[in-house]
Amino acid sequence: MNVKVFVYDSNHRLFHDIDLFYEKGGLKMETKIEVTRDSIIGDVIRAVPGADKVIEKYFGNGCFTCPGMNMETITFGAAMHNTDPEQVVEDIKKLLSS
């Protein structure tokens, strides 16, 4: 039996695509996370191990105490810190592929 679960971010965009399935030995889970320039910074930090280091690299450590991290996108953060949002997304996606 396979079950597909969709999880949406705080702006109602698809964020996680989770497949649950049984294999020999029990229930297995495979998660696919879609990170884009429109992803919410806080959602990405919570979902992607190591993303906090990427955010800190490009935006500094102020994001971690800013309430805006739960509503501001990577594009917004990049604009505020004069950096390319695609570079931030690319670095986070490297974490997902490793």
Essential attributes:
98 residues, 37% helix, 26% strand
Précis, in short:
This protein is 37% helix and 26% strand.
**Helix proportion:** 25-40%
What is the CATH homology-level superfamily? SP0561-like
**Domains, number:** 1
Give me the count of strands.
3
Number of helices: 4
CATH topology descriptor:
SP0561-like
Strand line-up of the largest beta sheet: 1-2-3
Helix/strand-derived category reads alpha+beta
Shape designation? elongated
Main sheet record: 3 strands, antiparallel
Q: Low-confidence spans: pLDDT under 50, at least 5 residues?
A: none
* CATH top level class name: Mainly Alpha
**Architecture, CATH level 2?**
Orthogonal Bundle
Proportion of beta-strand residues: 25-35%
> What is the mean pLDDT?
80
**Radius of gyration from CA coordinates:** 15 Å
| Termini separation | 28 Å
**What is the string of helix and strand elements?**
EEEHHHH
Characterization of the model:
37% of the residues lie in helices and 26% in strands. By secondary structure, it is an alpha+beta fold. It is built from four helices and three strands, in the order βββαααα. It has a single domain, classed as SP0561-like (Orthogonal Bundle), CATH 1.10.3910. The mean pLDDT is 80. A three-stranded antiparallel β-sheet has the order 1-2-3, with no helix packed on it. Strand 2 and strand 3 form a beta hairpin. It is elongated.
